[in-house]
Amino acid sequence: MADIRLLGPLRARIGDVSVVPSAAKPRQLLALLAVHVGRIVTIDSLLAELWEEEPPRSAATTLQTYVLQLRRKIAAAVGDGSGVSAKELLVTEHGGYRLALPAESVDVLRARDLITRGQQALAAGEDASGSTLLGDALRLWDGPALVDVPAGPRLRIERMSLEESRLGAVELRIGADLRLGRHHRLLGELTTLTAEQPLHEALHAHYMVALYRAGRAGQALEVFRRLRATLIDELGLEPSPRVQRLHQAVLAAHPDLDPVAVPGGGLPRERAGALVGPSSTASRAPLQSWS
């Protein structure tokens, strides 16, 4: 049973045996093949990842050596009696190589599947289910993706894409939790997130709503003040109209900001969605959705 983890330090095991190379470039090779598990990664893509714009004359031969080294590790992990050879797991294809493992053996693919299912649940109005699925996806992260792997152009793009996916999932999950009336439990998390992401308007808006609903309107206004100062200092921009409307709502103690109890402890989507979620359809609401 293979288990490859890219959402944090690189870890790859077949059974109980690690197949992670110690040298930098073979680690890059394994990481790029794992990101594209089940699909061919061309030799040109691998050469560009490992040597960027200046591959040496021996690059193609050196790549074959790295593949051989990785196959040796795989062979040692699967053992002689498994009935599967290393060449069947790391396959040579016309023009490239393919890591022939199930998609669910790689944490990146599991996370993407959970995020997709969470988004679908939210779109269907199932906030509790969506929050659970997105939370399950986010728990797969054990730090920045590929944190200990040298990155060429392909892996740099993957890192950025995975970080955007993580932040998007966080934003959606927190929005669902706010609609479910879970504002008190979100305060600590949002304190950290807004410190880590000082320009992320949606997370600051979530924090403002959570603080307001916890009876801390003054702190909600202070969050807006800090966000506005940072945006002006760093980018020369005012907060978006959506966040400015939320600020005005806090100042006016607008009723759409108040949590409303419903059976099961959640919030009616047509009430809360105008402020804390992406799925509001209440066109008559004075505040449009900002997320």
TrEMBL record:
DNA-binding region: 1-101
Pfam families, per the entry: BTAD, Trans_reg_C
SUPFAM superfamilies associated with the record: C-terminal effector domain of the bipartite response regulators, TPR-like
Domain spans labelled OmpR/PhoB-type: 1-101
Cleavable signal peptide: none
Recorded superkingdom: Bacteria
Biased composition annotated in UniProt, kind: Polar residues: 278-291
Region (Disordered): 262-291
UniProt entry keywords in alphabetical sequence: DNA-binding, Transcription, Transcription regulation, Two-component regulatory system
Family note: Belongs to the AfsR/DnrI/RedD regulatory family.
Name of this chain's protein: AfsR/SARP family transcriptional regulator
Organism: Streptomyces musisoli
Lineage, top ranks: Bacteria, Bacillati, Actinomycetota, Actinomycetes, Kitasatosporales
